[in-house]
Amino acid sequence: MHAVWRARQGIPWEPEQAKGMVANAGHISKVGAIGNFPAASPEDLTEAFGLRAAPKIVRAIDGSTAGPEKAALRKKAIAASMEMYRDAQQVVSLVAAGIVPALNKCCFKEEEPDATMRTAALVAMTRLGREYKAREQMLAHGTLKALTAASSDEADVSGACLSVVSELVKHREFSMPLVDAGFVKLLVSWPTAGMQLGSVTALGQLVAHEEKAMEAAIADGAVMTCVGLLEATESNEVRAAAGLTLSSLTYGQAEKCVALEAGVMRTCAGMLREEDEGLQVAAAAIAMSMCNGTRNEDGTNACKPTAVKEGLVKALAPLLEPEYALELTSEMDDSNSTALPVYVMKAMSSLADAPKGRKQLKAKCLQQLEAIAKSEEPLVKKNALVAIERITWMP
User: How confident is the model at residue 89, as a pLDDT?
Assistant: First the structure.
């Protein structure tokens, strides 16, 4: 305890003298401590969680301590918990001590008026989202309700909330709870501007995991939202994420028609001609999804003729050249074969069902596809053979 006094009051250590109790008491009062030392500011409180730190940290985050030091202790406790996350055993201790409900409590303005602290609590929650036991606690203690409140908060708080949601959508046990809590609608039109990348990426992961999420997203206008983002933003990352999400949403004929009327084929052709590989992959995925499968009631599929008319075959053909060159030099392997040619060949297979598309593909791409079909990469070879079969089909 004397050491704590000295550290707090800035007194250098001096050894006690063996001169009896009275002399030692005088030494403590005159040398080992300063009388009437002013009280510490709550902001200057030092971290002293020590042994069995997890319960103490959780109590400080929960706000069990009353008085002016409550906010300072909560701030330092959240910072200390983030340091403890480096050790898996410490994370288990924190979860067992109840850190999840304590952090939930910090997400509400009524409990924590400081937006910085609400943001810090959500950042801490994002890391916990990677732990299975922590996710169990989140489901049991109403974390989604806290996230719903945080989603419409200030920009920093809302952004941190989106980070938590982006982590939770990666885990299937959260798919239905997120849908039931209304997060599909939130992700379609996230209330804070400038966060399209996170919200669209999370939406794409959610609809890929859960059919009900796809239905909810379609009902909330996600198709038009994604089509709009393909051209309405300057960020290629946002455009690529929106394109991949749109490729998942356009499974049914009704959704294909909505996207088609919005001019998505012309947009796809433009994206394929850009130098960004992420945009090219997204555009090829959209073309594959739009031109594949279902037809109108009269048996026609308007997507394929429209795609050919908008020049998708001409835009897709040059994208096979790098893969074709690698195969000619026998340099293709899993280290240099990317996802792009696979998506391109799948899109070509879908477009080959249209007579004009088949004719153009036969003239522009058949030679390259026949060479690529000799590849040792199984996925590349499989899709090349399927494309060749579709292109060379005769009625």
Answer: 87
Question: How would residue 149 be classed by pLDDT, with cut points 50, 70 and 90?
Answer: very high
Instruction: Output the six-digit token pair for 132.
Output: 């299975």
Instruction: Say how far apart CA 194 and CA 143 lie, in whole Å.
Output: 24
226 touches 192 (CB < 8 A):
no
pLDDT band for 315, please (50, 70, 90 cuts): very high
Virtual torsion, Cα 170, 176, 179, 181, nearest 10 deg: -110
**Residue 32 has what pLDDT?**
55
C-alpha distances (whole Å) from 170 to each of 40, 173, 174, 280 are: 45, 9, 8, 24
- 13 phi/psi in degrees, rounded to 5: -75, 135
Please say if the pLDDT value at position 371 is more than 60: yes
Reported as half-sphere exposure (CB side, CA atoms, 13 A), residue 135 has a value of 18
CB atoms within 10 A of CB 228: 14
Instruction: Kindly give, in sequence order, each residue whose CB lies less than 8 Å from that of residue 11, ignoring residues fewer than 6 positions away.
Output: 5, 31, 32, 33, 34
Q: Which of 173, 244, 161 is nearest to 203 (CA)?
A: 244
Computed over every residue of the chain, the mean pLDDT equals 84
Query: Looking at the whole model, is its pTM more than 0.90?
Result: no
Give the domains, in start order, of the chain with CATH numbers: 1-38 (no CATH), 45-168 (1.25.10.10)
- Summarize the confidence of residues 98-121 as an average pLDDT: 93
Least confident of 15-29, 108-122, 249-263, 312-326: 15-29
pLDDT of residue 47: 54
Integer Cα distance of 329 and 327 in angstroms:
5
Q: How many CB atoms lie within 10 A of CB 141?
A: 17
Token readout for 290 is 């739009």
- Give the integer Cα–Cα distance in Å for 345 and 341: 6
In this structure, are residues 33 and 62 in contact, taking their beta carbons and an 8 Å threshold? no
Q: Which of 259, 221, 220, 219 is nearest to 243 (CA)?
A: 259
Which among 369, 386, 238 has a CA at the least distance from the CA of 316? 369
CA distance 224 to 246: 9
Q: Are residues 248 and 214 in contact, defined by beta-carbon separation less than 8 angstroms? A: yes
Please, are residues 309 and 352 in contact by the beta-carbon 8 Å criterion? no
